[in-house]
Write a structure and sequence with these properties.
Elements lengths: L12 H5 L2 E3 L9 H11 L6 E4 L4 H10 L4 E5 L8 H14 L3 E5 L2 H5 L3 H14 L5 E4 L7 H14 L3 E3 L10 H11 L4 E5 L5 H10 L3 E4 L2 H6 L2
Parallel strand pairs: 1-2, 1-8, 2-3, 3-4, 4-5, 5-6, 6-7, 7-8
Helix pairs in contact: 2-3, 4-6, 7-8
Length: 227
């Protein structure tokens, strides 16, 4: 049974750096030169993943894999509204191009309309194609009620998705309460990647203490350099 922590953990620089998915998300429509520069800079850090948009997977994977690093990308981002055939093709292409992990957005409109079976049918083949590789369910916590957040958790568990990704960014900041809600009901059965609003080392440490297993942030360099 999960118990909310009443103590402060001794969080080290390694604890933070090693669970970060480093993103260029704060730079809208970056040029190819900006993207390559960002990816090459991540090689100097011990991040868990470098996060890249699907268009850049192939070129970035070549850089990262040559250095023994890994790459994550996003599918049907950020609202999951891509039609099913296109979503499946995007997963196939991302894996072929070299993605090691994928963050897959559930169809938020279908979910909010309570078409839960459609949401599951849409995601199931995408999850199966991962063949054991980690995928995270982007469920957009900031658009959901608490009951809806828990329903999204149930869908993830039913589909065998081990990770939740809280939000896509774009100004939507994850709260500690959103993380604590999941941990209270599911403990270690579901891992959480916090995404949106983690800008400082204090933010990162607070979410680690709340139980997150991964942090997606466009402030990755600033956070680690300040530790």
């Amino acid at each position: 049974m999960y118990r909310e922590r009443s103590y402060k953990m001794n969080v080290t620089k390694y604890d933070v750096e090693s669970i970060i998915d480093a993103s260029l998300g704060a730079t809208p429509a970056p040029t190819m030169t900006q993207v390559e520069s960002f990816v090459r800079k991540t090689l100097n850090y011990n991040f868990k993943m470098t996060l890249t948009e699907p268009f850049f997977i192939k070129s970035n994977a070549e850089i990262l894999h040559a250095a023994g690093k890994q790459l994550c990308s996003v599918i049907s981002y950020p609202l999951g509204s891509m039609n099913h055939k296109s979503k499946v093709l995007q997963v196939q292409t991302a894996l072929k191009d070299g993605a090691d992990e994928l963050d897959i957005a559930m169809d938020i409109s279908a979910f909010k309309s309570k078409h839960y079976e459609k949401v599951k049918e849409d995601l199931k083949p995408c999850v199966e194609m991962m063949e054991g590789r980690i995928c995270k369910l982007l469920y957009f916590a900031s658009l959901l009620t608490e009951d809806e957040q828990l329903c999204a958790c149930e869908i993830a568990l039913e589909l065998g998705i081990p990770f939740l990704k809280t939000n896509p960014g774009y100004g939507y900041s994850t709260t500690l309460d959103q993380v604590k809600l999941v941990k209270k009901h599911y403990g270690d059965d579901l891992k959480i990647m916090v995404s949106g609003g983690v800008r400082t080392k204090e933010d990162a440490i607070a979410f680690i203490e709340a139980g997150v297993s991964r942090i997606a942030t466009s402030a990755s360099f600033e956070i680690v350099d300040s530790l």
